[in-house]
Amino acid sequence: MVSRRIYRPRDLFSLMQSTLATEKFFISAYEIGIIDNFPEIRVQAEVSARENRVRRFGGEPEILISEIYDEVLKKHPQLSPATVKKIIDLEIQMEKIVLYKNARGSCLFEKAISDGCKVILISDMYLPSAILKELLTSCGYDISNIPVYSSGEERYSKNSGKLFSIVKKNENVDIASWMHVGDNVHADILNAKKLGINTLHADWSEYNHGVSNHWKTKDIIGESICKTLLLKQVSAFHQNDPLNEIGFKVFGPLLLGYVSWLANQLKIHKIDKALFLARDAHLIYKIYNEYFFQNSEEHVKCEYLYISRASAYMVGMTDWPMHRIWHLFGGKNKKNIKKILAIAGLDASEHISDIHHVGFPDEEYIPVSGEEHKVHWLINKSFPYILLKNTQHREVYADYFKTACEGYKNIALIDVGWMGNIQSVFARSLGAQWAEKQIHGFYLATFVGANDNRSIYNKMFGWLTNYGHPHDKCDLFLSGGVEIMEFAMADNTGSTIGYKKTDNGIIPVREDSSGSEIEYLKKAARLQSGIISFFEYVKPLIQKGNYAALSSVVLSEPFFELIARPSSAQLDALSSLTHSESAGSNAERIVLAKKLPLKDKLFPGENYIKELNASYWKEGFKRINRKKFWAKYN
């Protein structure tokens, strides 16, 4: 009838541990050791309580939760009975948070009620029947007139088979008309059949009684959340659509970890205002506002700021550091000279002599491999014009950025991240205001190149990779992770290409989406629907408010697994996607992993190497163009 949002029953105690570590009533010099070891203390207390029960009274080792915590009190006499009572209350509260109505079980229950069947609920559990009723009610069940049996209260279990006999006697049940439904093969099916009871195995419900290999509390919680998503019962929360499922199982956990980390960082750094940068942060902005800090005084003032590399480079370039220039103009997309100069707001027709001087024939010419130094030379020759254009634009449009920051000292910029280019030019667009403010960037990841953009006034923090560390995760981002992440975050409002002055102030100008981008955005919307479904599923855990416990990088493991070892279903859903990485060129798109003709798969040669080097998603390319093209990846 109910399932948990955690993989193993004992993971509940890790959730309790994370809460106890923040509860003022529990933190003292005497109790730190209990907090650090609480899950094991709780498990061992239950073992001791069961052993003591059998030793003292014989019979079955069936106990109640109060007897478990009696053992805790014996081993830790410094705890007061009142404190132990609060811990018991916390355990029940945590059960309410992790439990949810199982879709298949609920359907069967409602059918039995509507058919006029007598329903009896039987549980091998240490919670008393009154608490079991409370938990079922909190999950949405109406059980006001339904008898509930707890093995802890009755001192007999389904595991021995004796609880069935007690129920038969108390409820006067006719064995011939009794149908017992349960998920434990031994206790619910085999033991019931021994007594002649008809059975139905609830194989739609799965769970695990193993032990985590992690030792940090938040990592145990992160692993538990991820692994739970693979269980049968969770499929009721997402659509039967590959992109929706990827959103739910891969990007949902990833964003839970990131936004939890973000929420904690905003608090630690005493941020006054958080600016979520269009377009990649639109979903992050929605998730933060809808699922974090609801009705809380700690909720930071937020604004969604329309900005892009293309629009920022026209306003925020105030200097010309040679080492940063290639970050601003680089990319795999092949563009002609006209489009390259347009990124900085220049009309190529006004710079024909410079174009000729560096060795290009005209503005329509597309530079080839080996001519990057000419492009760099041309851009550097044009720097006085670029800075002049920026000065002119800044005088007109910078108020859009200044207004967003006005009255706030500690500003946070939120985006998926990478090099910090937008943060760098955004800060410079503020003019003299910049020196009066602390600007922090909180990103999913930052790469080595971000070192070129940081300063004492311009700080950047990455959750998964920070300035390119750790290297293994950074390498995965650079082997397709960036492009797939940007697909997952894509927004259909159009990229910001500039700003316009109106009677009501400065407003952003957004480009119309091209035909190829519209199809791309439709696919992204399917994936994002899965992400939102995940947050609806995990919402009760978030509402507890202990964000540090939900910020484990373990929550990113399904994402990195997708990049490094995609399944066949994931390949089919994602490999044909296209990507546009350069500023101001959303209409020009390259496929993530190009599918080659059969002859190139069977006899990989020069063309295979060329396309592999050109592809964004390296492992995706290798797998989709494997020699054994008929093989499947799980």
Note down, in words, how this protein is organized.
The protein has 634 residues and is α/β, with parallel strands linked by helices. The protein is 48% helix and 12% strand. It has four domains: 2-96, no CATH class; 103-201, HAD superfamily/HAD-like (Rossmann fold); 238-314 and 398-592, no CATH class; 317-392. The protein contains 28 helices and 15 strands. α21 links the parallel β9 and β10. α1 (11-20) crosses α3 (38-57), α1 packs across α11 and α22 (471-488) packs across α24 (557-564). The longest helix is centred in the last third of the chain and has 29 residues, at 515-543. The radius of gyration is 30 Å and the shape is elongated. The protein starts with a strand and ends in a 10-residue tail after the last helix.
Secondary structure layout plus pairing:
Blueprint: E1 2-4, H1 11-20, H2 32-36, H3 38-57, H4 65-75, H5 81-98, E2 99-101, H6 103-114, E3 121-123, H7 129-138, E4 148-150, H8 151-154, H9 162-171, E5 179-182, H10 185-194, E6 198-201, H11 217-228, H12 242-268, E7 273-277, H13 282-291, E8 301-305, H14 309-312, H15 322-329, H16 337-342, H17 352-357, H18 372-381, H19 383-397, H20 399-405, E9 410-418, H21 421-429, E10 438-446, E11 458-465, H22 471-488, E12 496-502, E13 505-510, H23 515-543, H24 557-564, H25 568-574, E14 578-579, E15 590-591, H26 598-602, H27 606-614, H28 618-624
Parallel strand pairs: 3-4, 5-6, 7-8, 7-9, 9-10, 10-11
Antiparallel strand pairs: 1-2, 12-13, 14-15
Helix pairs in contact: 1-3, 1-5, 1-11, 3-4, 12-23, 12-24, 22-24
Protein name: Glycosyl transferase
Organism: Salmonella enterica (Salmonella choleraesuis)
GO molecular function: metal ion binding; transferase activity
